[in-house]
Specification:
Layout: E1 2-7, H1 19-22, H2 27-41, E2 44-49, H3 53-63, E3 69-73, H4 82-89, E4 95-99, E5 121-124, H5 129-146
Length: about 150
Amino acid sequence: MRILVLHGPNLNMLGRREPEIYGDTTLTQIDNALQERATTAGATLLTFQSNHEGALIDMIQREGWTADGIIINPGALTHYGLSLRDALSSLTAPIVEVHLSNVYKREPFRHTSVIAPIATGQIAGLGWRGYLLALEWLLASVDSTST
């Protein structure tokens, strides 16, 4: 099983950027926790972060077609990243959208996701553990469809 994890703009600043909203866990710590769990499950995990929508799209086009599942935190691209949405919507793998904060308890502009309509599911407001929950769901879901 092959899982692609995509982190959008500003997520490279986790641990330093507004810890009262996003927590003090760094992106490296999140990726390491995901990698550890994936390895335990016998899955291959590829993580990628970019502050540029085009770079995320390039990664989706390069690696998304062979992924069995995708976890994405699009960051601010959640609300306006239409070309990101188009790239994701062309894939057949299940997609889980993750947000560290509960975007529905924040500013109104954060309440709309252009990614949600093409995602299999969304996890918001559970901090960095939302990524682990997304991975657990993909591991169970993809495994159950192959048996």
